Amino acid sequence: MTVRPLPIPVRRPELLSSAFAENPKSRFLHGLARPDLDSVLAAATPRRCFADSVVVNQGDPAEYFFLLSKGCARHFFLTPEGRKVLLLWLGPGEVFGGATFLSSPSSYLLGTEMVEDSWVLVWQRKTIRELATRYPQLMENALSIAGDYLTWFLAAHVALISHSARERVAGVLVSLADGIGRKVSGGVKLDITNEQLANAANVTPFTASRLLSEWQRNGAIVKSRGGVVLRGLEQLFLHQV
């Protein structure tokens, strides 16, 4: 895996405002009064991160907290055998690096990489903890997001032990459509390869390819270079082989 260090931060204030303007409805910033929001944003540093760059390395000290203001990222986990397991895709407004909120120094549990060229807002651990003390709404929002992560993990675990391969692959597609899908003519575009889909759904690439071909035949999807266009989510679950 290629690990690229974070690029040199861009300190021009207008870039910070522009980065946040891409998605002003981040759940992490929900409920802040405008003056408080301005103070929180002023304490962040905008950084441009390139596609395929690893922004957070699993096991590294949790020294930075991130808000994805533009682009797409995803969490992954490296097993002791070196297998890379894809977990959760992140869209604009999502945050990562939540271990920085803990009172005791901790490490990142997961890695986070950029799916495409992106912008993030970055706070140092000391800074984000001070802001959370000054503005308790930030901590409330962070806890709510952490609760959603637990819900996602539970759903993924239940799917693994009780759902068929078809249901798991369909579930990943539906989840991605809701999270990072882009509306295009005829449906919702997902930039994901067969191998990535198979990894996320815990099936073999052959199984993922077989299901995608079936769904293309019945009109549920249209395969495109480097992704798929979803046309009918319900059809993913209706047809059985």
Walk me through this protein's architecture.
By secondary structure, the chain is an alpha+beta fold. It folds into two domains: 13-159, Jelly Rolls (Sandwich); 164-238, Winged helix-like DNA-binding domain superfamily/Winged helix DNA-binding domain (Arc Repressor Mutant, subunit A, Orthogonal Bundle), CATH 1.10.10. It is built from eight helices and twelve strands. It has helices at residues 13-21, 34-42, 125-134, 136-162, 165-179, 194-201, 205-217, 235-238, and strands at residues 45-49, 54-56, 64-70, 73-78, 84-90, 95-96, 111-114, 118-124, 182-184, 187-190, 221-224, 227-230. A four-stranded antiparallel sheet has the order 1-8-3-6. Strand 9 (182-184) and strand 10 form a beta hairpin. Helix 3 packs across helix 4 (136-162), helix 5 (165-179) packs across helix 6 and helix 6 (194-201) packs across helix 7 (205-217). The longest helix is centred in the middle third of the chain and has 27 residues, at 136-162. Mean pLDDT is 84; it is low at 1-14.
